Amino acid sequence: MNQKIQEKLNEVREHVSKIEELDRLSALVYWDMKICMPKKALEQRANTLAYITGESFKLTTGEEVKEFINYFNPIINELSIVDKAMMRNLKKNYEETKKIPEKIHKQYSIVTSLSEAAWEEAREKNDFSIFKPHLEKVVAFQREFVEYLGYKENKYDALLGKFEEGITVKKLDKIFGELKEGILNILEYIKKSNKKINREFLNAKFDIKKQKEISLYLLDKIKFDMDAGRLDETTHPFTTNFGNKDVRITTHYFERDLLSNIYSIIHEGGHGLYELHIPDNLLGTGLAIGASMGIHESQSRFYENIIGRSKEFIKVILPFIKEKFSNLEDVTLDEFYSAVNYVEPSLIRTEADELTYSLHVIIRYEIEKELINGDIEVKDLPKVWKEKYIEYLGVEPKTDNEGILQDMHWSDGSFGYFPSYALGNIYGGQFLNKLMQDNENAINNLEDGDMSYINEWLSNNIHKYGGIYTPEELVKKVTSEELSTKYFLNYLENKYKQIY
Amino acid sequence: MNQKIQEKLNEVREHVSKIEELDRLSALVYWDMKICMPKKALEQRANTLAYITGESFKLTTGEEVKEFINYFNPIINELSIVDKAMMRNLKKNYEETKKIPEKIHKQYSIVTSLSEAAWEEAREKNDFSIFKPHLEKVVAFQREFVEYLGYKENKYDALLGKFEEGITVKKLDKIFGELKEGILNILEYIKKSNKKINREFLNAKFDIKKQKEISLYLLDKIKFDMDAGRLDETTHPFTTNFGNKDVRITTHYFERDLLSNIYSIIHEGGHGLYELHIPDNLLGTGLAIGASMGIHESQSRFYENIIGRSKEFIKVILPFIKEKFSNLEDVTLDEFYSAVNYVEPSLIRTEADELTYSLHVIIRYEIEKELINGDIEVKDLPKVWKEKYIEYLGVEPKTDNEGILQDMHWSDGSFGYFPSYALGNIYGGQFLNKLMQDNENAINNLEDGDMSYINEWLSNNIHKYGGIYTPEELVKKVTSEELSTKYFLNYLENKYKQIY
């Protein structure tokens, strides 16, 4: 590569580094808002965020970006894989951000901040009618965005693509159709099973201080580096990061629920390991991120469910848990394993078991699709929600909090995001299949208590690529196959037919 | 004011708001580094700070600022007090920042970050020779800055003015001369006194958890609003803020030292109250700050010493302290009051008593003055330091940590900062005199346990003006007099002749 091109690349990297710094600042400000900020600072903090967003918008859509794109367009194939991906990413963000006028962006940010507050109030009062007028505005904006963003076959495609490049309604209808059928079949099998799973021993008080010791033990087990990360408490657990050397996760503790913290820790720890394993050479390229929301979720759910709810892993951690809680002394490995994998269709997504979880997501996918296409309206939501929960899960929400108000995603306008959760499950199953092809003892060997092999496999096959590949490309690269529900469904069937 | 001028003012405010947001982000990043950041993130965090500094430099020295200055210069007296001060401040920062070339700024920021690390290593090893070559570089830069910044009478004036507008060597030589003489006289008196102060009861273990309860109690007593602030722990206590609704202080706890936390809390709480009392109308003008470092220190030391070490305040808090620590049950008010005001010349500035504290500062002032003027060199520092400590305080440092290495200020290039500490004492004494003129019972009434009157007096006379006035102007405005050491020395003399 000649010197002139190299110099231009350096210019791009310098520009991208600035966007990256703004992303980090934004993440830090959000984290601080959730963990540290005193409550009276909310309004001033909103100004700070607006400043960051404005600067980021300028850098993402600036004339210099257009110039970079035009410069490299004719010679794009001369670039390294990383630089090529950096340019693709820069271009994608430029075009997508440009499509929606800044004025609309600004109006929308006011609408969503009011809508988030309204959702919180509605939650407190368990009353959808408080949230309804705000959600109507958010949906109106989303429908407008769809027109700005453009779409080929289905309006909802425009929103799906924001979170999962390459994913469309056409693909999801097929994939989620298969997934739904497969899960419902397994659920049918379980319903007919006579196996009684004992969960009595979980119905006790579990001292929070001891639960905290378990958190640190688990993070150590999965090799989450606490010198490059930290753990805090929030109502809703989440993961954020500022570069690959500062990855922060949160969890929550309930005295009456031992498992909630355990699986939050492993789930968020999985997100965290992804970010910790991003290599340094991707810093300053805009690619020091996960491949997509769905791929990110595949990693957290891989750690949470495929590893965390495996008999092998539980065999390792159970003695430590028993040491902390003597009331569990007589619980056998099989009993504990069955209890953490107990299946029961329920109303709340975040509390769902591994099997029925995806059904909650599919319900939301179907509702969003109809809503964005104008086939239903916000006023119809409680009714549609109830019908689908009865149909798919056989349960009926009695209050708004048990139903339509349970997730905050719509309040901040994250339409198109939900499918990532179920896609994560599907990706995870497919990655597991490849892992087992590479080493059929990978999961069995977990009972030795050493995560190194699996951590390295995921790191070398997925994490180290950061955002270089689209999710489609990455799945192909890792598994040499297109996305398929087969492996995840096989995994579920094997697991649950063994348990029940 | 015509519409066009108003529009231009709005432009200025929008510009200044951005600088303010960057300041807030910088403060947040620093706070997070000290309190939350995992250690491996240090290098990446330095990049984030460099980004913020660079953006702030651009906004402070941009062409648009020059244009604003030129626009308002001819009509400056038509502006409101606030807008006029905003323009003065903008101009001052523009000119000062412009004076030093950006290249030098960048080189210097590398030098100081290495120098800070070297100071820490030197502290660990108690060895000045590790820090010496770095300090030499920092001093060389400071001497260069002096030439860029310009000065009339004394090179050191250029650095003093950065922290305390209007303060010069000529003024300080006089003021600090008086202060030194006055303090030495009182010290002489104390040495001759036969009064024996009992501090035995402080020589005990004080449970940290109970000390923490005392912290919250004290913050509540001085009316520090915990809904607009927070308290954390660091080795060296400090205060920072992001606007006037998010003010964060830190303290430290020692099991063997009950007083250290108590007076750190009141000191930092004083800084914090200043920021909490800044009115909303100064946000976005660049004036939502203290008038100067010295004025800020006057407030923290007012709360710490004039209030916090007064018999009236101690009368209020002692019962709570005794409730926590039963070993203090038999200590009388007089005994506790005398113990917290015990005078003993010592080696470490931050542990000095109220009386001898200023001597530590004067020593540093004299050393900096000679160093910047080239009258002494870095290699002479340990010797000069030792001589002055023997001369002024009658104590001799046996190790570098007890002497030349105790403060971090020189490692980050804060030359010209130390005098603010002693100026703070002098301002405080002068404010106290005016307070007592307004209400001779202001301090006596503290024994009712209500800080409202004093808080409001300081707020209305000092805090509410933020950075509108220079320290000189503010002192004049509040007290109708020029800066004078008389009142602080009177206060000290009355207090210590009563105790001893």
UniProtKB/TrEMBL annotation, chains A, B:
Cofactors, names only: Zn(2+)
Q: Which residues bind Zn(2+)?
A: 267, 271, 297
- InterPro entries given for it? Peptidase_M32_Taq (IPR001333)
The cofactor note reads:
Binds 1 zinc ion per subunit.
Keywords tagged on the record: Carboxypeptidase, Hydrolase, Metal-binding, Metalloprotease, Protease, Zinc
Top-level EC class, please?
hydrolase
This chain belongs to the protein called: Metal-dependent carboxypeptidase
- To which species is this protein native? Clostridium uliginosum
